[in-house]
Structure formats: structure tokens, C-alpha cells
Specification:
By secondary structure, the chain is of the alpha/beta class. The chain has a single domain (10-249), classed as NAD(P)-binding Rossmann-like Domain (Rossmann fold), CATH 3.40.50. 44% of the residues lie in helices and 17% in strands. The radius of gyration is 17 Å and the shape is globular. The protein binds NADPH dihydro-nicotinamide-adenine-dinucleotide phosphate.
Length: 254
């Protein structure tokens, strides 16, 4: 892991109780950032337990980061507006917003239900819009927005009309935000991961995974550390002249 330092910086990673989000937030925690751990408080309350367990782990790191937990559904604009208000009250503002929360509901166009279409668009595209809209109200000048898009938003995959459309939308949004926010020295970039080993990958059929693996020159699936390294780079002070870009992290696939 490359060594970065974010002391005094407040970082919010959406969907950070597990998967890529947890990996990214952990990397920021090791780099001394004040961490806002965001999760979705599902009716069963299981996610809160995962979020609390991760917060305990992070607080025990030698960097002893402050970790604040907040629950919100990214699909719900009012909840995200309230989340950002609470982050402002508790942490004084925000320096880095990582839009990570996302879902897949794969099915061919012919079989895809309207519910599956809307679920993915509302979470993966509307959710990023809500976080950017209300997040930029508390983001300090010189701040960073990094959105986790997908290689699917660049090249498209069978069975992912909803997902590819949402991720391509995030990439488009990123390019606009780079222009609109440049006067505040805020950068906006996207990362396009290939196949990363998380629970989401478990939702892809094994025969599809085998096909994908053959197409990855690096000969392996990615890890959450691979993504965290890219996010920390784009969030660092040194990358202040990089904005409106999409960085594929794919092992050479795209
Ligand atoms: P996981 O399924 O492991 O994690 C998804 C995260 O999103 C969870 O923390 C979940 O929260 C959160 N989330 C889902 N719905 C909502 C919602 N309505 N409101 C708030 N949070 C929500 O997925 P990954 O870690 O693999 O994926 C993270 C991101 O990376 C996604 O945007 C995904 O599209 C993208 N990506 C992943 C790839 C991969 O191969 N894994 C490849 C390319 C892109 P909770 O746990 O509380 O439900």
C-alpha cells in the first residue's frame, strides 16, 4: 500500500461497512483521516452490526482515527441531505467524498423487470447525484470527489443495461462536476474497477467469472486494496490538477 497522509481531513465513503467501501475507508483510517462510516440501516439491523464492528477495528489502529457512523439510504434525497447536515455538525465539514454505494440486478433487457431497472438507477445514479448535491454544500474548497463507477460504464456487459447506464451516467456527472467545481479547487474523478473480489462478485455466475478472468491480462481479479490505492491517490493534495477523469483499475482489461 502506498503511504499517504490525511491527518485533519474528513472523509465520507458511502456504503463503507463492507466490500470496496470498507477497504477504502480502512486505507483512509490508516492514513490518519477522520472517517465517516456510512451504511444503510436495513430493516433487520444487520448492517449496523457490521458497521459497528468495522468502526471498532478502525479505532484500534495505531493511527487512532476518529470514526463516526451514520445510516442513510442513498436513494432518499432527504436522508442524504440530513446525513450531510449531521456530518457538518459533527465534523465541521468534509474534505473527501467517495461515492461507493451500489448494487447490481443483472438480467438481459428482455427479462429485466421495471423494478430491477429502477432499483439500480435509483441506487447507483440518483444516489450519487444526491450525495454530490448535498455533499458539495459541506465540502470544503480544495476538496475531492471520487466516484466508484465501473468498467461496465465504459464498455457494457451482457445483462447490465441498468448497471451500465447508471455507471456511464456517473462518469458523465463526474465530467460536469469537474467543470462546475473547479473554481472552488474541488476535483471530481471516477474510478472504473474491473472485477473486484467482494460480495458483489459473488452475484455473478461462476461461468461468467471464468470468462472474465480469461480477458484480464494481469491474470487475477482485483482486490479492495487495488481500488483503495487509486482512491487515495485521486484524493491526495498532489493530484489537484487531475479532474474530470476516469481511471480504469482493471489489471489491463480495459
Ligand atoms: P458490496 O455489495 O460488497 O457493497 C455495496 C455497498 O453499497 C454496501 O456497503 C451497501 O450497504 C451499500 N448500499 C447498497 N444500497 C445502498 C443504499 N440504498 N443506500 C446506502 N448504501 C447502499 O459491493 P462492492 O463493494 O463490490 O461495490 C462497491 C462499489 O463498487 C459499487 O458501486 C459497485 O457498483 C462498484 N464496483 C464493484 C465491482 C466489483 O467487482 N465488486 C466492479 C466495478 C464496480 P449495506 O452493506 O449497508 O447494505
Amino acid at each position: 500500500m502506498i503511504s499517504y497522509s490525511f491527518p485533519g481531513k474528513v472523509v465520507l465513503v458511502t456504503g463503507s461497512s463492507r466490500g470496496i467501501g470498507a477497504g477504502v475507508l480502512s486505507a483512509f483510517a490508516k492514513a490518519g483521516a477522520t472517517c465517516v462510516l456510512h451504511y444503510w440501516n436495513d430493516p433487520a439491523g444487520e448492517n449496523r452490526k457490521d458497521a459497528e464492528a468495522l468502526a471498532t477495528q478502525l479505532r484500534a489502529l495505531s493511527s487512532a482515527p476518529q470514526v463516526h457512523l451514520f445510516a442513510a439510504d442513498v436513494r432518499n434525497a432527504a436522508e442524504i441531505e440530513s446525513l450531510m447536515r449531521q456530518v457538518k455538525e459533527k465534523c465541521g465539514g468534509l474534505d473527501v467524498l467517495v461515492n461507493n454505494a451500489g448494487i447490481i440486478r443483472d438480467r438481459t433487457l428482455k427479462k429485466m423487470t421495471l423494478d430491477e431497472w429502477h432499483a439500480v438507477i435509483q441506487t447507483n445514479l440518483d444516489g450519487v447525484f444526491h450525495c454530490c448535491k448535498y455533499g458539495t454544500e459541506i465540502l470544503r474548497d480544495g476538496g475531492r470527489i471520487v466516484s466508484i463507477a465501473s468498467v461496465a460504464g465504459l464498455i457494457g456487459f451482457h445483462g447490465q443495461t441498468n448497471y451500465a447506464a447508471a455507471k456511464a451516467g456517473v462518469i458523465g456527472m463526474t465530467r460536469v462536476l469537474a467543470k462546475e467545481l473547479a473554481r472552488r479547487q474541488i476535483t471530481a474523478n471516477a474510478i472504473a474497477p474491473g472485477m473486484i473480489n467482494t460480495a458483489m462478485m459473488g452475484e455473478v455466475k461462476p461461468e461468467m467469472l471464468a470468462e472474465y478472468l480469461k480477458m484480464i491480462p494481469a491474470g487475477r481479479f482485483g482486490t479492495t486494496d487495488d481500488i483503495a490505492n487509486a482512491v487515495l491517490f485521486l484524493s491526495s493534495e498532489e493530484s489537484g490538477y487531475i479532474t474530470g477523469q476516469v481511471l480504469p483499475v482493471t489489471g489491463g482489461w480495459v
